[in-house]
Design a protein that fits this description.
By secondary structure, this protein is mainly beta. About 0% of the residues lie in helices and about 85% in strands. The chain is elongated, with a radius of gyration of 29 Å.
Length: about 200
């Protein structure tokens, strides 16, 4: 578990012939992260020349980021407009990976057959919500929005390698490698209505 808090402050002045405008931005960040991961494996000797190895990796993480942005905008000879924009983002991601290997040594030389298989699956979901309100001069709740990013990934790998050194100066090598990948990304934006409901933006 980790937690971090930070802030930034900007004071900008825009020079114009009729009078200068000013923009002050005060941002506060609050980040929280929790997660775990594990890696384990086992090797089994089928015979003195053949071994099989299996390993597994898993992780699971969750994050929450809150960013609060105060804006003070002052045009020349005008009242200051203060607005607050608050962004809340949560993210969860997890991964599962399985690896399998079979190695066979035909003799004491480098005459070997190796087979590898890997299967991996991961998912990353981000949910965000934006709240906007005018504080001065006219306290008003403005319309916000919701954001969703859902990314999933799957991969399968199969590889086989054969090496046969038939002499001191030559050897036979043969192999195959195949990879299947599938990545899906869903991105949605929902706009807040005056009724308070959120409607999916089809654009």
């Amino acid at each position: 578990h980790s937690k971090s808090i930070g802030n930034s402050y900007y004071n900008s002045e825009f020079i114009k012939p009729g009078g200068n405008d000013r923009l002050v931005e005060d941002r506060i960040f609050d980040r929280n992260r929790t997660g775990w991961n594990t890696n384990m494996g086992v090797e089994y000797f089928i015979s003195s020349k053949t071994s099989m190895t299996t390993s597994m990796f898993m992780n699971d993480n969750s994050n929450q980021n809150i960013a609060t942005n105060h804006l003070f905008s002052t045009a020349f000879n005008q009242n200051t407009i203060e607005t607050q924009r608050k962004e809340i983002e949560t993210e969860t991601d997890n991964t599962f990976e399985l690896n399998w290997n079979l190695t066979h040594n035909f003799n004491d030389s480098d005459h070997t057959l190796t087979i590898d298989f890997q299967w991996e699956k991961s998912n990353d979901i981000e949910n965000g919500q934006v709240f906007i309100e005018e504080i001065t001069p006219s306290p008003t709740k403005l319309l916000g929005e919701k954001l969703l990013t859902d990314e999933s990934f799957k991969q399968q790998l199969f590889q086989i390698d054969y090496v046969n050194p038939f002499s001191e100066n030559g050897q036979i090598e043969a192999g195959y490698r195949g990879v299947l990948k599938d990545r899906t990304i869903v991105y949605e934006v929902s706009d807040e209505q005056t009724s308070g409901e959120f409607v999916l933006n089809a654009n």
